[in-house]
Design brief:
single chain; six-stranded antiparallel beta barrel; 2 domains; Elongation Factor Tu (Ef-tu), domain 3; four-stranded antiparallel sheet; 4 helices; alpha+beta
Length: 244
């Protein structure tokens, strides 16, 4: 059993490089580190990519990052095929594919705003670099896309701050209304859950559990719009957004 990976990306999602130590190899060959700034696939957000460089200059390209264990405490870095794998004990420097990550941060925060203008149960979602989506159970599917896009533009232009806070599992259990997603459970396991707040505490725009990476304020998202609404069931609608 390997110790939990220190998740630097949660404390500083803007960190682009990090020194770490290889502590082992996962069951499927992933590289395990004592700490990482690479986000592992989860919550609809894909895992980070980048480069891992040893002290002797040997580079290992990282194709994706995933959770090694079901308890989501250990993170594995999946190397590009046929790349050299550093041995346990090796000191390495991680360099994040920042351009891709920043797009994912912007899109993930944009989807939180989408859940604000469409306050319905979320049944699924996906975060992409240029496009994202949320699936909603909407009793009345007659959506005014122009009005919704105008509201989204207002939220971006207001440049609301985005911040993080923590509550215990028990506190979350006592406030089930904080959970918007029906298909994805809030990230638990450590006894506490991270909340993402948009706006300040006195005038909060949104507050919900989320383990993903986000931008500092809504203004950083940039322009985006609802591109398409698809019927996926009697009341289920897939709402796609894209950067413009």
């Amino acid at each position: 059993m390997f110790p939990a990976t220190a998740t630097v990306f949660r404390d500083d999602p803007y960190a682009r490089t990090l020194e770490a130590t290889v502590i082992g190899r996962g069951e499927k060959g992933g590289i395990l580190l004592d700490r990482t700034l690479f986000y592992p696939t989860g919550g609809g957000q894909p895992g980070d990519r980048g480069v891992m460089t040893a002290a002797d200059g040997t580079e290992t390209g990282i194709a994706t990052t995933v959770w090694e264990d079901d308890g989501k405490t250990v993170i594995a870095h999946v190397a590009i095929e046929d790349m050299p794998l550093p041995e346990p004990g090796t000191k390495v420097t991680l360099a994040l594919d920042w351009e891709r990550r920043h797009k994912l941060m912007r899109m993930h925060t944009a989807l939180h705003l989408l859940s604000v203008v469409l306050p319905f149960p979320v049944t699924g979602g996906s975060v992409g670099e240029d496009e994202g989506r949320l699936d909603f159970d909407i009793p009345d599917a007659d959506l005014d896309r122009d009005a919704l896009n105008a509201r989204l533009a207002e939220l971006v232009a207001a440049d609301h701050p985005v911040s993080f806070e923590w509550i215990t599992d028990a506190e979350l259990d006592a406030k089930p209304e904080l959970v918007k997603t029906m298909s994805v459970a809030p990230p638990r396991g450590s006894g506490r859950v991270r909340l993402v707040r948009i706006g300040d505490a006195a005038a909060s725009v949104d507050l919900q559990p989320c383990g993903g990476t986000h931008v500092r304020s809504t203004g950083e998202i940039g322009r985006f719009e609802i591109a398409k609404v698809e019927k996926k069931g009697k009341i289920n609608r897939r709402v796609r957004v894209r950067f413009v």
